[in-house]
Amino acid sequence: MIDTIDLPDDVMIQAAQDFFSSEWADAREESGFSFSPGTEITKVCPKQDHATLLGLIRPYVIRLAQAWGRGVGAMFSFMDITEDEWADALFYVLMGCRGHGIGLEDDYGDNIDIAKDKLGSDIDASPFYSEFSEFADLAYEVVETDARKPDPDPYSDALWLPGDRVRVDARMPTGDRLRGTGTVLRNVSTSDLHHDDSGVIVMIDDDQHVEPWSYEGRTICVGEDDCEMAP
Q1: How many domains does the chain have?
Q2: Pseudo-torsion of CA 89, 101, 60, 140, nearest 10°?
Q3: For residue range 170-226, what is the model confidence (pLDDT) as tens digits?
């Protein structure tokens, strides 16, 4: 069984950070935050520890090598992809395996054809599907940690203040209609919201009265008008 990693650590770290950025953006938007138009997600995503990134990506690099019957670096060499592009190529492969609608074929279709001709066989550029739960779990953790930072200078005239108990009824970017009770943590600017409104960050209670249940215990960003005083 092929279990060789023939990629330099810096290649895997860069690909893992870029891939994490995608998961982080999804987690952030699912929690009600948004990005200003033109924002480069990879530029604003918090950088993660190199050892953590390597620990996350290595199992998938091994899985690719097993599926392809050779190391990922060796396969990229067959594709005539230069080493300075290996991180980008690996990122695209992982995105394809995640099912995000983009993959290696988008930027390296000709290179795949080159390798097919050399090897005399077809190449599956996305040889497995995975939800990459380890990356997703870290992304949610990072989003939660950032959202729960207290406001050092809360605006005293805001409609909602830190510590207020509110009932939330909000349409989230995912399309879910969130209903539940929680505690206001701080106010946010409109640039953090997925709609034009003043907003608040609310830590939703971890109980059975939250709908949908996936938001139990989560910290979310909603508009001021999506909240009312809890009884």
Answers
A1: 2
A2: 110
A3: 999 889 999 999 999 998 865 555 555 578 999 999 987 899 999 999 999 999 999
Enclosing domain of residue 97: 9-144
Of 144, 176, 211, the residue that ends a domain is: 144
Residue 26 has pLDDT above 60, yes or no: yes
> Are residues 91 and 131 both part of a single domain?
yes
Residues 184 and 125 in one domain: no
1 is a domain residue: no
Q: How many CA atoms lie within 13 A of 65 on its CB side?
A: 18
Burial bucket for residue 38 (CB in 10 Å: 0-12, 13-18, 19+) = exposed
Residues 213 and 119 in one domain: no
83-101 pLDDT, tens digit per residue, is 999 999 999 999 999 998 8
Give me the sheet containing 227-229, strands edge to edge.
219-223, 199-204, 177-188, 165-171, 227-229
Give the CATH number of the domain where residue 191 resides.
2.30.30
- Burial code of 76-94, b = ≥16 C-beta within 10 A, e = fewer? bbbbebeeebbbbbbbbbb
Rounded to the nearest angstrom, the gap between the alpha carbon of residue 186 and the centroid of all alpha carbons in its chain is: 23
* pLDDT tens-digit series, residues 107-154: 999 999 999 999 999 999 999 999 999 999 999 999 999 999 887 777
